[in-house]
């Protein structure tokens, strides 16, 4: 019923909270139902947002109801959640009967938190230079394609990686996407790591060599370059999530790209209709420039009436989770998602999670989301699409801004999981013993 303000927590209190984070949830799964409160997110006068722990929230239904206030849910604990909210939305939560405890600012001086500075991560310009350098180093293995431009005109690129890179061969294709949410910079580092690792590994590592001989891999290092630049290039983190596209009739800026996909868009209380919300779904499906660029690229991979991309990972942070569809319904199966489909998702997802220590689960086990890339990939194109929520497991590892010292460790942590997905990409149903039923020629 009240908002409690606390100063810096003791190390012991931080440890207790860290132990409680059995089900941490990062930015990807953040959802918000339509709300009518005013918002000016993205403008100079935008309200200050802080993190709060909200107690007495234990079930997916309760979390979905909480998200209806328009807050961003950052972590899911056993009997509470951590949210990012401005003062107005915090008061709305308090009026619902919840107690909020303001968490200390995620700054290096706080001691309980370990965070980074923007200079510890590749900027958009540095990322572009790094990608170009790697591609030039492996000209027979990699080729860069500009697949479109952001709202502000920056290039969105896809790098093809395959042993016969100049030829569109009849091989299963795998897609990795990164940086959909601006503040999730560790995911862009994941893309750079993967390019380097697969370039160096080809001809040296038997599994990488076989996969690049038998698959065509596409890597999109930054889906949301405008948001990345806005969040990082001022020299101080801005905690920005959306793209930078203005919203007509309001001073609010930006659409949540991961609520803007044309499958069950806005259907089920899993996104916000308020342009000021961090989970604003946009004015229409694919209204965000960057959503349409990536969607058009996926559609371009339909050859002879058949989608060539068979498997996909969308990298996000934070929470150390592996998620699969559907997000729009609590049900394990639904029209277009059979029990065998679900079992293949879960089996491969669980194997990947065993390799990197993440927690595997259906997205809606956390709470409802709609208009997400995973649901669209599977629901429209039949692509086995996962979200990886990367390090850390909680705000006490740096939240959206973990220290640069963890980049090498945490990107390498996903090497095995990526190879597991690629190895299954020719027939995901092999994982449940039904290759003959689904994959025989």
From TrEMBL:
Active site: 389 (proton donor/acceptor)
Domain of life: Bacteria
Cofactor(s) required, per the database record: Zn(2+)
Signal peptide: 1-29
Span list, region Disordered: 29-48, 234-253
PROSITE patterns for this protein: CARBOXYPEPT_ZN_1, CARBOXYPEPT_ZN_2, PEPTIDASE_M14
CDD domains, sorted: M14_CPT
Biased composition (Low complexity): 29-44
Keywords: Hydrolase, Metal-binding, Metalloprotease, Protease, Signal, Zinc
Domain Peptidase M14: 120-425
Family per similarity comment: Belongs to the peptidase M14 family.
Protein name, per record: M14 family metallopeptidase
Record lineage: Bacteria, Bacillati, Actinomycetota, Actinomycetes, Kitasatosporales
């Amino acid at each position: 019923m009240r908002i409690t303000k606390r100063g810096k927590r003791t190390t012991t209190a931080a440890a207790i909270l860290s132990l409680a984070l059995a089900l941490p949830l990062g930015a990807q799964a953040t959802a918000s139902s339509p709300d009518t409160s005013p918002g000016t997110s993205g403008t100079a006068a935008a309200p200050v947002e802080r993190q709060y722990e909200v107690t007495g929230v234990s079930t997916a239904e309760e979390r979905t109801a909480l998200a209806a206030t328009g807050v961003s849910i950052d972590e899911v604990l056993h009997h509470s959640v951590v949210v990012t909210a401005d003062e107005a939305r915090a008061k709305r939560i308090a009026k619902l009967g919840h107690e909020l405890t303001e968490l200390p600012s995620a700054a290096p001086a706080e001691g309980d938190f370990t965070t980074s500075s923007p200079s510890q991560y590749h900027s958009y310009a540095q990322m572009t230079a790094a990608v170009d350098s790697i591609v030039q180093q492996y000209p027979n293995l990699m080729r860069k394609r500009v697949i479109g431009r952001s709202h502000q005109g920056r290039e969105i690129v896809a790098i093809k990686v395959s042993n016969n890179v100049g030829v569109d061969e009849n091989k299963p294709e795998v897609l990795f996407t990164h940086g959909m949410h601006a503040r999730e910079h560790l995911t862009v580092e994941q893309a750079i790591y993967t390019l380097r690792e697969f370039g160096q590994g080809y001809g040296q590592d038997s599994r990488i060599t076989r996969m690049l001989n038998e698959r065509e891999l596409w890597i999109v290092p930054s889906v949301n370059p405008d948001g990345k630049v806005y969040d990082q290039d001022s020299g101080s983190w801005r905690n920005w999530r959306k793209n930078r596209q203005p919203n007509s009739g309001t001073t609010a800026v930006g659409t949540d790209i991961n609520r803007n996909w044309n499958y069950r868009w806005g259907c089920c209380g899993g996104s916000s209709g308020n342009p000021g919300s961090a989970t604003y779904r946009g004015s229409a499906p694919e209204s965000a420039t960057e959503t349409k660029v990536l969607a058009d690229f996926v559609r371009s991979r339909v050859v002879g009436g058949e989608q060539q991309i068979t498997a996909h990972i969308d990298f996000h942070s934070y929470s150390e989770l592996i998620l699969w569809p559907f997000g729009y319904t609590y049900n394990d199966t639904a029209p277009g998602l059979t029990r065998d489909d679900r079992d293949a998702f879960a089996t491969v997802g669980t194997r990947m999670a065993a390799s990197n220590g993440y927690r595997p689960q259906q997205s809606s086990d956390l709470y409802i989301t709609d208009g997400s890339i995973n649901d669209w990939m599977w629901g429209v194109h039949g692509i086995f699409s996962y979200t990886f929520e990367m390090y850390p497991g909680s705000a006490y590892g740096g939240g959206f801004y973990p220290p640069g010292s963890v980049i090498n460790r945490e990107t390498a942590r996903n090497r095995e999981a990526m190879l597991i997905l690629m190895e299954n990409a020719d027939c995901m149903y092999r994982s449940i013993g039904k290759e003959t039923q689904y994959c025989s020629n």
